[in-house]
Structures are given as structure tokens and as C-alpha cells.
Amino acid sequence: MKDEIKISRPLLSKWAESLLHMNHHGTLIQRELKSGDIKRAAVLAERARKRAWKLFSEMLEYGAEKPKGYCEPQKNA
User: Fold this and answer.
1) pLDDT confidence of 1, banded at 50, 70, 90?
2) What is each CA distance from 73 to 39, 55, 60, 70, in whole angstroms?
3) Which domain covers residue 50, as residue numbers?
4) Quick one: pLDDT band at residue 72, thresholds 50, 70, 90?
């Protein structure tokens, strides 16, 4: 595997926007937890989790190496 991979600026910008959204979700989760709205916090946490998983998958697709010790998720039988 080559150490250098060319990634377009639009794709990098898309990834940066995703990270910003995840950060925003984290801020909103903290706010909802402080106010006691656990259901809303859970919804926001799930949205952040899905966005993080999508970004992780895209980065692997474009050549990132899987982290040491990473195991593929188990498929439901």
C-alpha cells in the first residue's frame, strides 16, 4: 500500500463538514443531558454515531488503514 493517497478537496471538505456536525451533535447532547432530556440526547448520540461510522467507512474505502485491533462488526444471523 502506498503511503500517499490523493484525495480531492471536495471530499476532504465533505469529511471536515461531517466532523463539524459530529462536534455540534456532541455539544447538543451535553446541553440535552444538562436539561434532563435523555430521549433527545439519545437521538442526537445515534445521529453522531451513524455519521462517525459513515465517515470511518468512507476513509477506509479511500485507503485509510484499519486501526490496530479493529474487528468487523458482527452480522445478525
Assistant:
1) low
2) 26, 16, 15, 9
3) 9-61
4) confident
